[in-house]
Amino acid sequence: MARLPLLALSTIIISASLLNLALSKTLKRDVKALNEIKASLGWRVVYAWVGDDPCGDGDLPPWSGVTCSTQGDYRVVTELEVYAVSIVGPFPTAVTNLLDLTRLDLHNNKLTGPIPPQIGRLKRLKILNLRWNKLQDAIPPEIGELRSLTHLYLSFNNFKGEIPRELANLPELRYLYLQVNRLIGRIPPELGTLQNLRHLDVGNNHLVGTIRELIRIEGCFPALRNLYLNNNYLTGGIPAQLSNLSDLEILYLSYNKMSGVIPSGLAHIPKLTYLYLDHNQFTGRIPDAFYKHPFLKEMYIEGNAFRPGVNPIGFHKVLEVSDIEFIV
Fold first, then answer.
1. Is the per-residue pLDDT at 312 higher than 60?
2. Of 26, 75, 236, 261, whose CB neighbour count within 10 A is largest?
3. Three-state DSSP class for 80?
4. Rounded to an integer, what distance in angstroms lies between the CA atom of residue 125 and that of residue 118?
């Protein structure tokens, strides 16, 4: 029997998959939820949401920003991306009925009010992106129930209260962005137990405490590359144990109330590339090992009480790391 060329076989498989998706019915639960969201979001979105079925119906394509997949005899909504369209109003609670969501992206809108505690129902969610909104109140501890979550973006909102320690219950979490909010209290040291956490940004809040408290759990932050603690009210010194974070590349401590001398062990973090110490109350001198570090490109030291003759490293361009770089 003649064999089909690989390209033709792939085309047949893809076509069959698309046909199966087209013939399947969309789960009523998801249709109801998306239509409730459609009714609440306003004209800026719904002009592109035509028809009653968000996954497409007959000649109508799926709604813009809605991704569906087939599970058995039904289609379910797996991704919802409605961003940068100036949505105004409260967080659409009906989203929490889309139980098969793996990605929820509503960033860069004008959503207000709290994140509802029902968010904990989205057990399959991997990416939650709500940054650049006007969301308020406390970060719900129920986010800690999203055990598949890898990316959490809550930055540039108006969240207040403390960082929930329940976030330490997210074993797959890699990127945690909480910067530019109104968070208070101490950073939960339990976050250090997250084995996959690569990027932690809690800058520009009203956080207190010390780094020693943050890293007090033995073997903490084993995969951490970027640590942003800038523009808070942290006190105390830099503990020598911080050098145990051997994968650290960016350490951003600017604009706190930290003091003491800079431990020489910090210069032995092998991949350290950016070190921001400026605008604190550090004293003493910078160990010579920093000036011999093979990867250290930038070291900011101004606004401290270092001894005369202490010099910065690098050209001191403002570091801008866009969290869009980490979206997958």
1. yes
2. 75
3. strand
4. 13
Distances 12 to 7, 9, 15, 22, 24 between C-alpha atoms, Å: 9, 5, 5, 15, 18
- The C-alpha atoms of residue 175 and residue 151 are separated, in whole angstroms, by 5
Query: Contact 170/191 with Cβ under 8 angstroms?
Result: no
Least confident of 188-197, 267-276, 278-287, 315-324: 315-324
Rounded to an integer, the average pLDDT of 228-256 is 98
Contact criterion met (CB below 8 Å) for 303 and 280:
yes
Helices (H), the chain: 6-23, 28-41, 43-46, 211-214
Determine phi and psi for 245, rounding to 5 degrees: -80, 80
In one-letter notation, the amino acid at residue 4 is L
- Estimate to the nearest angstrom the gap between the alpha carbon of 211 and the chain centroid: 21
Structure tokens at 252: 């951003």
Residues 6+ apart with CB under 8 A from 191: 163, 165, 167, 168, 176, 197, 200, 214, 221
Task: Give CA–CA dist 101/82, Å, rounded.
Answer: 14
Is residue 251 within 8 Å of residue 272, measured between CB atoms? yes
Cβ distance 201 to 177 under 8 Å? yes
Highest mean pLDDT of the ranges 48-52, 150-154, 311-315: 150-154
d(CA 124, CA 12): 30
**49-72 average pLDDT score:** 91
Distance CA(79)–CA(82), nearest Å, equals: 10
DSSP string, 135-171: E-SBPPGGGGG-TT--EEE--SS--EEEPPGGGGG-T
Compute φ and ψ for 137, nearest 5 degrees: 65, -165
Count the helix, strand and coil residues of the chain and give each as a percent rounded to the nearest 5. Answer: 25, 25, 50
Distance between CA atoms of residues 30 and 77, nearest Å? 7
Query: Minimal CA–CA distance to 53: which of 73, 78, 34, 81?
Result: 34
